[in-house]
Amino acid sequence: MSFGPHLFLALLEGTVTAFVLALTALGLSLVFGVMRIVNVAHGEFYMLGAVLAWACAHAVGTPVAGFIVAMLVAPLAVGAFALVADRWILRRVNYHPESTIVATIGLLYVLQQAVLMLYGPDARPVAPPLYFKIQFPWFGYSGYKLVVAAASALLLAATWLLITRTRLGLYMRATQQDLEMAQAFGVPARRVYALVFALGAMLAAAAGVLIVPIEQAHYLMGLDPLLMSFIVVIIGGLGSLRGTLVAAFAVGLSDGVVSVFFSPTLAKIVATLLVAAVLVVRPGGLFGEERA
Amino acid sequence: MSAWRKVLALHLAVLLALLVLQFVLPPYHHTNVARIMVLAAYAIGYNVLLGYTGLMSLGHAMFFAAGMYGAGLPVYYFGMGAPAAFACGLAAGVGLALLFGLMALRTVGPSFLIVSMMFGQALFLVTLYFNEITLGDQGFILSEKLRPLELAGTQLGFHEPAVKYNLALAIFTGCLLAALALRLSALGRVLIGIRENEERTRLLGYDSFRYKLLALGVSGALSAAAGAGYALLFSYVGSTFASILFSIYPLLWTLLGGVGTVLGPLVGTALMFYLVDTVSGVTSSYLLFVGAALVALVLWFPLGILGTVRSRWLPWLP
Amino acid sequence: MAAVAPLLATQALSKHFGGLAAVREVSLEVAQGEIRAIIGPNGAGKTTLVSMICGRHEPSAGRIVYRGRDITALRPWERLRLGIAYTFQVTSIFKGLSCYENVALPAQRGLMHGLARRLAPGEAAIEARVTAALGAVGLEDMAWQRADELAYGHQRLLELAMALATEPRLLILDEPTQGLAEAEISAFCDLVRQIARQATVLIIEHNMQVVLALAGRVTVMDAGEILAQGTPAEIERHPAVQKAYLGR
Q1: Interface of C with B in 115-144 (CB under 8 A)
Q2: For the segment C185-231, what is each residue's pLDDT rounded down to a tens digit?
Q3: Residue A243 maps to a domain
Q4: Searching chain B, which residue's CA lies closest to the CA of residue C125?
Q5: Topology adopted by domain B3-312
Q6: Spatial CA neighbour of C213 closest among C232, C241, C238, C236
Q7: Interface predicted TM-score (ipTM) of this complex, two decimals
Q8: Which of B126, B124, B132 is nearest to B240 (CA)?
Q9: How many CB pairs (< 8 A) connect B and C?
Q10: CA C171 – CA C193 distance, rounded (Å)
């Protein structure tokens, strides 16, 4: 296959990656924006989504039904778990930044190992709900991957609507702008925090459900999305949703292209170097609120 | 000044105890304690950044690995002698720390933490990517290539337990005394000021960026010394020592022992080493224990062992 | 007044936060050795102005000249080393450290010259300076208490001791008597008069008794600009000041 089509393939891959990355990183970014904490266990919520999707597919007969059940059950289950973690751990340390980081690191290992013990060390595939091939002149491309991109876009749009059109969204934005002022106006900050944390977890889990027919469910699969999400929020600027989305596309596309032409490992190294470049010029990220 | 004397006496007593310990320990524990001392040196390096300066890094394995590969690669490929290799490892660690600091210390808030994790992972991936040279995950062994140390006419082979133990003790002693000296010095005071209230410290006449960079340099140096020491003494160099888990360990050891105390890292490393040893005898999912320990520490025991001792009984403990 | 150059002069100093002009083209001169009070209603821009002088905020426009030198581009720590010290409106000390350690940090700065001195400036010399500073504010007995165990008034004195330990030439005090009891306030005024023998003092105050007791000259600010300047008596009589601030 010559260069042109190869590039087209790479861009397609990159686009799919970008959408899923945007979905995952958005969860992390929302949690930081509203709660001012970094959830290092974020990747594990993604992994849980994938593993639960496998479980659903395994339990239900057909791939389509399995997928629909997974898309409902997995985010809700993971969201519920996030609510519990918020109540019992994060609230107990008063959302103190360093304590939260250490606690979520602990949570990362607990979740990872729990899945290892219950699910095992193997990577297990899940059949995609829709299987069709789009035939380009130079290669065939999995139609499901494009469905993933579309579904991610839909979820991103739904989240955007949630943030801008609902009362919860209003509370979230108020809390992000000025916590004390919001509380003075009667915004139930604690409840908002709990719901935002759950929302972040659900977005990650949804991304996991979408990706699992492409990638296979494995107990260690949460690390890469975590690091990629980190790269995205740093480049985009911590706290800026617009920055997160822009950076997700930049990073996702470059990751896809470098992965196809060279190797995934090199793609990650390149992404990290990109971060270094951005930091030298703009320490707060491209759209960052905070300047050095 | 009796406070100084108490402090110095305590730390020298600990070193003396470690020196004497080698004559009473059975062989299995002998190597363990040697390992603990080198790993504790790594934790001491980590504590300089977290405990003294208040900067949390999740990528410290990169400095340990810089020391490890910086010492291991010249020995493996060029047959370099141990002292020169150690110096190479140390230089690699300091260089990396300063380079990283120049780029990452200008970020604000939790960005530093995230960036450190990313760069730690990037270095890990680099060791895997260039695996024709580094032999990646599998790693390589130094023992055939490592010439014995010549000291005062005698040959000290690195395979001898006594040599391992005492060199490990030497590295630990160097790192412990360096950390203690820093803590008690004027520079240490500035770092603590930055930790407690950075803006106030700047308005009292200190360029906080420069001091944070210095702290990172020292921290990287100590961690790299541990890494270089580990490679030379235990003969193995591999990618696992650059992984994220290996960056989380010094955080755990430091928190357990008492973050911000000089001897805390030793206590935490030793305790955790034996706890994990015990737990992994029972189950292979000892990481579950590690994770639970982190959550428990942060919820119920944030001062750690020596931190609690200091706040309740011994306020003069540095 | 024009014969001797002022210690500090700001030239059309301005600061905008987004759309809000907090300080507009303020040109202020402070003579060496004087005690100058800055008064004005809340939001007048007093704290923003002095924050620009000590280096906490970067000006949007204008210059700051100190001892004949343009210091506008200098960073906060560089200004401290030139002798500009600042105490915060909301006390900013090292809460978890002892009073001694709080004052030792600024005290050692002046001793850290050259490489060897940076590592070990000499604890005895530091101790002498700390004792002197704590003694000047009357806290010498509390040297080993934790700063957060002190009463609020004592914390304010501690912050003042920290500023004194830097041997300032220009001491900027931002609402230092806020929250202090009557007796503490008059002790504080005595202290400032003593300090003013060696340093120039710029003090933001709401308490008019303190202003009348201490200030040689007063600058009145409102809405980011200077409304009036003069002796306390002149200011009291000034019609615009009476209307805007003193409420008569």
Answers
A1: 118-121, 123, 126
A2: 988 999 999 999 999 999 999 888 899 889 999 999 988 899 889 99
A3: no
A4: B186
A5: ABC transporter involved in vitamin B12 uptake, BtuC (1.10.3470)
A6: C232
A7: 0.89
A8: B124
A9: 67
A10: 12
